[in-house]
Amino acid sequence: MLASDWSRAAAEIARAEAAGGDWLHLDVMDGHFVDNITFGPQFVAALRPHTRMDLDVHLMIERPDRYWRRFWEAGADGITVHVEADHDCHETLAAIRSTGRRAGLAISPDTPFEAVLPYLAEIDLLLVMTVRPGFGGQAFMGAETMPKVAAARRHREDHGLAYHIEVDGGIDAETCHVAAGHGANVLVAGTALFRAPDMADAIRSMRQVQEIL
Predict the structure, then answer these.
(1) Where are the domains of the chain?
(2) pTM (2 decimals)?
(3) With 50 as the cut, is the pLDDT of residue 212 above it?
(4) Fold of the domain built from segment(s) 6-212
(5) pLDDT tens digits, 154-183
(6) In what order do the strands lie in the sheet with 78-82?
(7) Known catalytic residue: 30?
(8) Active-site entry in 56, 65, 124, 168
(9) Which among 27, 30, 56, 172 is annotated as catalytic?
(10) Are the CB atoms for 187 and 206 separated by under 8 Å?
């Protein structure tokens, strides 16, 4: 949603849904955890009546433990918090899961994979950021992040877990092949979809990549 035309939010959501999108990824930034500010729970609540798509809320905020519940109340289907943020990850993830919603944990490119290991049995989704969080339109950081995606897949298989592996940042028709090949099964694309000549064609191209692998 970060790459969409916010002045036409309802129309942009309808366009994404008609094109075959499954989830709507909502990047929440507070100006502290990252050097940018986007929107809060009121915006999520305003979007909720306009779609039946899964609202995948990504909290790039310093204190997700204080605010996640507001996004749950706003209608989020999944809430992802950062391992690098100032909170007790065990407690925050358990609290989100207790609501029946999807609990996700995100890791930034500069953070070692070992930082998320203590929590992988407690999550429904691991978000491996493939750009540095804070701004859309950045280039895909494959060398820094694909080893984490592969490690997440190995850990999931070795321990009989079932979490999704999501990637976000610089995902397009080319990089989605790289990410899916390393083990990602949820692909977040902003610019590559909302600014594509035909969003439906762009989504079909990405789906075909996953079907081939």
Answers:
(1) 6-212
(2) 0.95
(3) no
(4) TIM Barrel (3.20.20)
(5) 999 999 999 999 999 999 989 999 999 999
(6) 23-29, 54-60, 78-82, 102-107, 125-129, 164-168, 186-188
(7) no
(8) 168
(9) 27
(10) yes
Taking only the tens place, the pLDDT of each residue in 30-47 is 999 999 999 999 999 999
Q: Is 163 within 8 Å of 128 (Cβ atoms)?
A: no
Residue whose tokens read 């002045």: 7
The residue type at 54: D
142-151 as b/e, with b when 16 or more CB fall inside 10 Å?
A: bebbbebbbb
Q: How far apart are CA 164 and CA 110, in angstroms?
A: 21
Alpha-carbon distance of 187 to 184, in angstroms, equals: 7
Q: Which two tokens stand for residue 174?
A: 């080319």
Locate 134 and state its tokens. 């804070």
Please confirm, yes or no, whether 168 is among the known catalytic residues: yes
* Amino acid residing at 32: H
> Which residue(s) pair with 188 in the sheet?
168
